[in-house]
Amino acid sequence: MSRSTNSDTRQPDDEIDLIPLLLDLWSNKTTLIATTLAGVVVSLSLYATAPEQWTASTYITKSSLYSLYKHVNDKGGTSTDGAQSLETRLYSSIQNDVFYTAMGIMAAKAIALKETAPRSGNEPVLYIASASATTPEQAKKQLETALDSANTEAISLNLPSLPADSGLTAFNTLDDIKAVNNKSLKKYPILGALLGILLGSTFVIGRFLVRQYRPSTRS
Questions:
Q1: Stretch 44-60: mean pLDDT
Q2: Residues 174, 59 contacting (CB under 8 angstroms)
Q3: Can you state the angle between helices 18-27 and 29-49, rounded to 10 degrees?
Q4: Total number of domains in the chain
């Protein structure tokens, strides 16, 4: 006695045929275009109403080790090789203490600090210090004030015996402070278009799945 079965030829109910889905997306291209355009319009509206955001920045690096030595211990005599090696390590340690103290002070004053690759072989550590505000003047002023304050405080904390007008700095700024506008016109339409097409595709695919898995009615 033989038994027939349809298990080998029956398609699982939860499989999705991609060809009808792609055809459905193509047939609803007008909807996708409309949602994409709507996303662009909304994003441009947000761009027009969003406040401007300016970021002022400059490069900073450790102060010269020679300058530190000259201000702290200006001697007329010469030292032996062993003494020079010991002094180099000592002042290198002081250099690090002063520099990273200044970095901590700047961070406490809401200055963003980002390490970056040195532009030349003579810069052991290079950071970008930046501050943001609604106008370029405010951003520059905020960064300048924080840099000056960090310089003064770091020197007075680590080298209190130095006079205030010694001229020694905790770090060097390598460029003039520059301000750029973070409000990019290109970014808003692209993000709006991507969001619009995503929402449109989700709507079309969802409607396709509802039709596919809706129980068939019999008259």
A1: 87
A2: yes
A3: 60
A4: 1
**What pTM does this model have?**
0.61
- Whether the per-residue pLDDT at 40 is higher than 70: the answer is yes
Statement: residue 75 has pLDDT above 70: no
Residue type, 110: A
Q: Are 182 and 57 in contact (CB under 8 A)?
A: no
Give CA–CA dist 161/80, Å, rounded: 26
> How is the chain classified by DSSP, letter by letter?
------TTTPPPTT---HHHHHHHHHHTHHHHHHHHHHHHHHHHHHHHHSPP-EEEEEEEEEPPHHHHHHHH---SS---HHHHHHHHHHHHHHHHHHHHHHHHHHHHTT-EEEE---SSTT-S-EEEEEEEESSHHHHHHHHHHHHHHHHHHHHHHH-TTS-TTS---SEEE-S--EEEE---TTHHHHHHHHHHHHHHHHHHHHHHHHHHHSPPP--
Q: Which of 60-69, 75-84, 116-125, 207-216 has the lowest mean pLDDT?
A: 75-84
**For residue 73, what pLDDT is reported?**
62
pLDDT (average), residues 83-102: 78
The span from the first CA to the last CA of the chain, in angstroms, equals 38
Whole-number average pLDDT of the chain: 81
In a domain, 143, yes or no: yes
Query: What range does the domain containing 89 cover?
Result: 54-181
Residue 195 lies in a domain: no
